[in-house]
Amino acid sequence: MKKLAIAGSVLAVGFAGAVFAHSGATGVVKERMDGMAAMGKAVKAITPVMRGQVSYDADMVRAFAEEVRKHSGEAMTALFPEGSGGMPSEAKSAIWSDWEEFEELAEQLHTLSEGLAMAADNGLMAGTSTGNSGSMMGTGSMMNSGTMMNSGTMMGGGMMGEMGNLGLEELSELPADGVFTMISQTCSVCHTKYRAESN
Amino acid sequence: MRKSVLGLVAVAAIGATGMAAVAAWPIGTPPGEIKLDGDVDRGAYLARASGCIACHTDFENGGTPLAGGVKLETPFGALYSPNLTTDPLEGIGSWSLADFDKAVRQGISPSGKPYYPAFTYPFYQNFSDQDIADLWAAFQTVPPSAEPSKEPDMPFPFNQRASLKVWRALFLDPPRTKPIPENGEVWNRGRLLVEGAAHCGACHTGRNLLGARNVDSEHFKGSDMLPGGGKAPAIDYETLMARGWDVDSLAYALRTGVTPSGDAFGNAMGEVVLYGTQFLSEEDLIAIATYLMDDHG
After folding, report:
1. Model pTM score
2. Which of A61, A193, B95, B295 is surrounded by the most beta carbons within 10 Å?
3. Does A54 map to a domain?
């Protein structure tokens, strides 16, 4: 039993290393995996900036936004032609049964990336150093009662809430890390719905 | 392992001798009266942390908050999360505080039926009276929805609620939330959340053939028995460390979904963050991460 458990954790560690390896994929599947991996790498690089752990650099933020822009919207959806699911793809069939929603999320990511480029000079919101930016997401609270913690709501917090409706102009006024949080949440929403497990 | 064999024998024995004796077997204890005032905000926060909103809201189909209807496919059949709004017929609008207490901390319905452990009440057993009062106050603020609560869709013998009494007797252990004072406040707050309200072990701990968690041998070692056939990775501290996590990155991931590799959570963990942990306070996320990253056996 113990041996099994050890073998299991060794395997698990092996898989962790393979997250972006996407071995065996070719053609359009490989192309979209590479696009996702490029965005992942960019997220990894920009996260310390957005968290205020290293000094803020608007050019880096714009470069990150451009990386996301290149791989989102139509550039992304074009790489998911019908019938391109199944091994070794990690795409769920829901992509094609909910195509409009998938398209909308890809488009939203595109808008957010453009918004982030425009917001890059705004810097981080005051006091960012602990990553508490989730609280600006507008959770549509029905109680709205000056909560002692950042979420006294029973009802709010639908996946996208208000943020799906923000236009470029509004995004351009926000602190950069606020837009970044929306970007990472969009990634997560899309992965939740449309990406099969890789672990 | 032995328990699951025992359980199978017990189920077979019940099948052979009839359910009458088991049906008459009393379960639970009458809840004591709670006279504390509930705090709505604190209750709403705890409901978030405990996954009430995540599991009892059909986000996928644009469902009304807390009106239930989320389908859970288990190896024993399908269940639907029930309506927890204040509707008196379909929801919990006609319940008393004592009914609510018994449901949450004991897993027993107002009519005395044991709930399936798909409802994660085993993790809520050590909720304090104040926790229950707060949750109750928060649930009172939820507008009614007449969305019907659906019955489980289970084959025999799992459709026999009385068989759950056997399950309870074999497997219903208290959660490991007991503080260990020398480990400090942060660690203990983390333990309370991880082993209790946030019920991480519901997905990340392996289960036996009867769907009970192997808390001694597989605690946080991952599971491939998630509803719908999903898998959850191991989150014991050794695996987490080997995968590049630390307290800071784990707390950040629970807020944003972003992992140390720059990936973003998907699947069940994506939902956990989107509907649950992103709303928790920074202090609580750090407490959760501190506890998970520590060698606590």
Report:
1. 0.85
2. A61
3. yes
